[in-house]
């Protein structure tokens, strides 16, 4: 009896480890998020974790061209954009410890070594580094009281960067209930689906001592019977454990597609999960609305990382979330701000849009083009939404063209400007280190009544995520207000300008990044109000 009670009460989280094979870009983040969603919809507490093999401690110092958007968590951790996908699916906020990087692991091991915690030993990948990884994951699972931990291994099997992490997962699977999922690609040549790459990749995984018991096949259409049988035979996986992950109209459909293939029943059996009744009713409704929009608005996003969609992924998704709740689809056209600056694009073409958005950004390139776009929005009464840098430039534009402060600028772009309407936050002035030193993560903001911000949030106190070093210079606030700029949101201590608006026309900008907190089941209020306003035009 005591033994039975012990096993009943003993905390035993289950682990799912997702590994990518053959090539990158198969949507491992979406698969991880979809599997997590399915399990959480059963009523289990799911903890998604991602390992990234690079030696950077976090993503904060990476260029969006190289790595896509830097996603910021509530606690200020700057991490891989897959964390955005997990949060958007699971409708939760994650902790920075869920992001494990090569940089963090080695920093920990080397610090221990210097303290003498391994005295007498030579410190090695096995067992020291692999043990550190397992302890990290197990401690986190326990402190979060997770029922199921879903671990995405960044990169592809065979990469030098994730080899030691996979070894750690192999060791973990010897002690804990663990299922390995292989994500693979099934190409099609002359109409025939080819399984050889999957077979080879599976052997490579086996050579590491890991045997995936589920295979997810990324392909343009569902697997043919023949291809499924081959994968099953050569990869030692029951054909019922081979799942289709084909091209979908929206990524949010994948949990539904997996559920239809009895994914839940199969994984529940392997992990001894007793609940198998998933409730995806609300999710399905939202997905249907994304697939069948009732109205479309055209919005111009004037930015500078326009060549890569991944740099603005949270913004694209925030608009998708609005669509799921309103039926209004946003056609987001990316406009390179340097093209406006250099006259390659006539700013007047912006009149063809129902809304203009200036997203966040760093550095001088393209700044004047963005300012021109904001001026055009103000003078032509086109609804405007500014995010972070989009607020700073809305203030610069207003200072120059309404307050007549001719060369007003941010000191980020002109250190010697006569009118530094945007300047470094005081706490930023002596900072030399670049990693993790911006004003990062959640900060409270107080909102004034009778403003656009209040109509959006319906609250006098809100919280949003931040990532910036500069702020509106408090010395210019009085003049800006006298000339009609509305300061509708300020930080808790009333020092930092958080939200500004134009009077009598729709234009609002925030120092925060509201796109980061938007979820499919809970769209961000600023994006909602902006799209609804654009749709009125
Ligand atoms: N470059 C600006 C700053 O550091 C804006 C940052 C951003 O848009 N995320 O304050």
Describe the structure.
- The protein has 537 residues and is α/β, with parallel strands linked by helices.
- The protein folds into 2 domains: 15-285, 3-Layer(aba) Sandwich (Rossmann fold); 293-536, Class I glutamine amidotransferase (GATase) domain (Rossmann fold), CATH 3.40.50.880.
- Helices cover 37% and strands 23% of the residues.
- The chain has 19 helices and 23 strands.
- Strands 13-12-14-15-23-22-21-18-19 form a 9-stranded mixed sheet, sandwiched between helices.
- Strand 22 and strand 23 form a beta hairpin.
- Helix 13 crosses helix 19 (525-536).
- Glutamine binds at residues 360-362, 388-389, 412, 467-470.
What is the assigned CATH homologous superfamily of the largest domain?
P-loop containing nucleotide triphosphate hydrolases
Mean pLDDT: 95
Give the overall silhouette: globular
Number of helices: 19
CATH classification, class level of the largest domain: Alpha Beta
The N- to C-terminal Cα distance equals: 70 Å
Specify the biggest β-sheet.
9 strands, mixed
What ligands does this structure carry?
A: glutamine
Strand content: 15-25%
> Order of strands in the sheet with the most strands?
13-12-14-15-23-22-21-18-19
């Amino acid at each position: 009896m005591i033994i039975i009670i012990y096993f009943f009460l003993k905390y035993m989280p289950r682990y799912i480890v997702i590994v990518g094979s053959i090539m990158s870009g198969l949507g491992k983040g979406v698969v991880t998020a979809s599997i997590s969603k399915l399990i959480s919809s059963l009523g289990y507490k799911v903890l998604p974790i991602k390992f990234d093999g690079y030696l950077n401690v976090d993503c904060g110092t990476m260029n969006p061209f190289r790595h896509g958007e830097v996603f910021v968590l509530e606690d200020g951790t700057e991490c891989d954009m897959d964390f955005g996908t997990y949060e958007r699916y699971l409708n939760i906020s994650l902790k920075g410890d869920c992001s494990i990087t090569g940089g963090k692991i080695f920093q920990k091991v080397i610090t221990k070594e210097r303290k003498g915690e391994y005295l007498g030993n030579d410190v090695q990948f096995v067992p020291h580094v692999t043990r550190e990884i397992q302890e990290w994951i197990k401690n986190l699972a326990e402190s979060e009281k997770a029922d199921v931990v879903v671990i995405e291994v960044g990169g592809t099997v065979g990469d030098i960067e994730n080899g030691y992490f996979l070894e750690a997962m192999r060791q973990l699977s010897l002690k804990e209930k663990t299922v390995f999922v292989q994500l693979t690609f099934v190409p099609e040549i002359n109409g025939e689906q080819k399984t050889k790459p999957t077979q080879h990749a599976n052997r490579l995984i086996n050579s590491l001592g890991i045997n995936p018991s589920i295979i997810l096949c990324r392909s343009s259409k569902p697997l043919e019977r023949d291809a499924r049988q081959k994968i099953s035979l050569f990869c030692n996986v029951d054909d019922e454990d081979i799942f289709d992950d084909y091209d979908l109209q929206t990524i949010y459909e994948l949990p539904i597609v997996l559920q239809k293939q009895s994914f839940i029943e199969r994984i529940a059996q392997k992990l001894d999960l007793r609940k198998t009744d998933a409730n995806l009713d609300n999710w399905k409704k939202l997905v249907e609305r994304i697939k069948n929009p009732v109205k479309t608005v055209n919005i111009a996003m004037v930015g500078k990382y326009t060549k890569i969609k991944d740099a603005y992924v949270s913004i694209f998704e925030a608009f998708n979330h609005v669509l799921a709740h309103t039926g209004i689809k946003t056609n987001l056209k990316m406009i390179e701000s340097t093209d406006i600056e250099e006259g390659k694009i006539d700013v007047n073409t912006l009149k063809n849009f129902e809304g203009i958005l200036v997203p966040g950004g760093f550095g001088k390139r393209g700044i004047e083009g963005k300012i021109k776009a904001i001026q055009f929005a103000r003078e032509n009464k086109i609804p405007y939404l500014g995010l972070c840098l989009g607020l700073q430039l809305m203030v610069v534009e207003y200072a120059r063209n309404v307050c007549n402060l001719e060369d007003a600028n941010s000191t980020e772009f002109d250190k010697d400007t006569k009118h530094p309407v945007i300047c470094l936050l005081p706490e930023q002035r002596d900072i030399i280190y670049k990693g993790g030193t911006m004003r990062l993560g959640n900060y409270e903001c107080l909102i004034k009544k009778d403003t656009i911000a209040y109509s959006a949030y319906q609250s006098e106190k809100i919280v949003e995520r931040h990532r910036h070093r500069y702020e509106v210079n408090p010395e210019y606030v009085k003049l800006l207000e006298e000339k009609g700029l509305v300061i509708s949101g300020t930080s808790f201590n009333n020092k930092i300008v958080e939200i500004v608006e134009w009077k009598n026309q729709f234009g609002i900008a925030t120092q925060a990044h509201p796109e980061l907190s938007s979820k499919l089941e809970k769209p961000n209020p600023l994006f909602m109000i902006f799209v609804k306003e654009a749709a009125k035009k």
